[in-house]
């Protein structure tokens, strides 16, 4: 293959929350680690979606230890311009609203402090296999394909890219019909009376008021989302807006560039039209708002899920079942981002359920772990505690397991999960 070749102990594909957890944990364990990211920045949806809260970085207001605390401490060291306390709701909590540029800075510094090598502008486009074992990841660059050899690989791409190139089996969408959670282009608004807005937004009348406003907006020809939510930011007069994607757009398969383009185009319309009807209908605090900017890219909630030695189900996440090989816990609630039909009963999860090591190991593939959004769940179990801090915890466990495999000269599937548990506990992680 064309391009340079470099060798590492561990190669992590994808620099979102799960990939950061994996790369930092592996580096902290002494492994020579490389983090590859397709975009021009690290942070994943936490960086693309503006001040959307990065939930579950903490635990009941205290520390989750390990990588989480490294990130929290780094952000706090920059002062109040970098972050502020996040929401506290049934889905959101124990998190931070983070200025996306301070997040990018924090990640660069943390990777460098831990001695982790990194490459941006490096989408993974292939895998080199020795029978069923991954020997190298292939990334694309404008200079040609670059091959990175390693002992262990971790797929945190969100879409399961490296796993697919390695021959792993995947599933996609809701089991009965293939529907997926909505794709969103976040945006931020300036010239906002934030005190007035949040008094309304956090009040009991908001849901009913917004329902009527959106009915009128749709009648008047505006493009609307089924729902909108508002987030505090670190800049006075600016709020960040999450939403459910364009109403009636149908299922968006973000793996398809046609679909992704459609979602990006629709997101721009939603942002511009929101400003228009917010002013026209004089939404509290938004009477004089203007569009500050849209997110760096669409936020994707669901694509491929890699089938691993264990697949988590709703029975696992809603009951009292405990896994002997638990290596992370997911807190919060089931969040389908509005996918469920009106009147459908909301599925319930047990906050703090365990995630087993077996769910990191793709069936039939050696030398590879997978973590994050492309992990091994059913559709509903993916939505159960899908907060970014939880994904970081799973990535941290994958990085720790990969480092043990390198140290002992074995494959990830041969690693004793109890050794991962012991190492994580020493890092202050609650298992």
Molecular structure report:
Helices cover 31% and strands 21% of the residues. The protein has 431 residues and is an alpha+beta fold. Helix 11 packs across helix 12. It is globular, with a radius of gyration of 21 Å. It starts with a strand and ends in a 5-residue tail after the last helix.
Give me the secondary-structure topology.
Blueprint: E1 5-13, H1 17-28, E2 33-36, H2 45-48, E3 58-59, E4 62-63, H3 66-77, E5 83-85, E6 96-98, H4 100-113, E7 117-119, E8 124-130, E9 133-141, E10 144-155, H5 161-165, E11 170-172, E12 187-190, H6 194-201, H7 206-219, E13 228-231, E14 239-243, H8 257-280, E15 290-294, E16 304-306, H9 314-318, E17 326-330, E18 353-356, E19 368-370, H10 379-383, H11 388-408, H12 417-426
Parallel strand pairs: 1-2, 1-10, 2-7, 10-19
Antiparallel strand pairs: 3-4, 5-6, 8-9, 9-10, 11-16, 12-14, 12-15, 13-14, 17-18
Number of helices: 12
- Unreliable stretches, pLDDT < 50, 5 or more residues? none
Strand tally:
19
The best one-word shape is: globular
Mean pLDDT: 96
The radius of gyration over CA amounts to: 21 Å
Percent of residues in helical segments? Answer: 25-40%
Category by helix and strand content: alpha+beta
Q: Summarize the biggest pleated sheet.
A: 7 strands, mixed
Residue fraction in strands: 15-25%
Distance between the termini: 43 Å
């Amino acid at each position: 293959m064309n391009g340079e070749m470099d060798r590492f102990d561990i190669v992590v594909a994808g620099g979102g929350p799960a990939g950061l957890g994996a790369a930092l944990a592996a580096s902290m364990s002494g492994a020579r680690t490389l983090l590859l990211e397709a975009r021009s920045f690290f942070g994943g949806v936490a960086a693309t979606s503006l001040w959307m809260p990065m939930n579950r970085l903490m635990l009941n207001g205290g520390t989750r230890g390990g990588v989480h605390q490294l990130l929290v401490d780094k952000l706090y060291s920059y002062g109040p311009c970098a972050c502020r306390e996040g929401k506290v709701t049934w889905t959101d909590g124990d998190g931070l609203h983070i200025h996306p540029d301070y997040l990018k800075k924090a990640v660069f510094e943390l990777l460098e402090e831990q001695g982790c090598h990194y490459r941006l502008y490096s989408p993974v486009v292939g895998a080199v296999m020795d029978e069923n074992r991954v020997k190298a990841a292939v990334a694309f660059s404008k200079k040609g394909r670059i091959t990175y050899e390693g002992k262990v690989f971790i797929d945190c791409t969100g879409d399961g890219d490296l796993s697919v190139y390695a021959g792993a089996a995947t599933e996609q969408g809701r089991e009965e019909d293939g529907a997926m959670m909505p794709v969103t282009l976040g945006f931020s608004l300036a010239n906002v009376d934030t005190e007035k807005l949040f008094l309304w937004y956090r009040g009991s009348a908001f849901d009913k008021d917004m329902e009527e406003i959106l009915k009128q907006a749709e009648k008047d020809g505006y493009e609307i989302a089924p729902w909108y939510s508002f987030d505090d930011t670190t800049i006075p007069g600016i709020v960040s807006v999450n939403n459910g994607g364009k109403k009636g757009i149908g299922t968006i398969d973000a793996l398809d560039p046609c679909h992704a383009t459609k979602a990006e185009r629709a997101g721009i319309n939603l942002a511009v039209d929101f400003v228009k009807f917010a002013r026209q209908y004089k939404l509290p605090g938004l009477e004089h708002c203007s569009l500050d900017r849209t997110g760096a890219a669409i936020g994707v909630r669901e694509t491929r899920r890699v089938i691993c030695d264990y697949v988590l189900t709703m029975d696992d996440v809603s009951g009292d079942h405990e896994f002997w090989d638990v290596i992370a816990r997911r807190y919060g609630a089931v969040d389908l981002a509005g996918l469920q039909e009106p009147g459908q009963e909301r599925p319930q999860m047990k906050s703090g359920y365990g995630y087993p090591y077996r769910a990191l190991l793709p069936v039939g593939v050696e030398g590879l772990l997978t973590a994050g959004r492309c992990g091994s769940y059913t559709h509903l179990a993916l939505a159960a505690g899908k907060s970014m801090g939880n994904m970081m915890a799973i990535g941290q466990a994958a990085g720790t397991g990969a480092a043990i495999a390198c140290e002992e000269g074995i494959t990830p599937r041969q690693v004793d999960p109890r050794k991962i548990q012991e190492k994580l506990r020493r890092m202050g992680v609650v298992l």
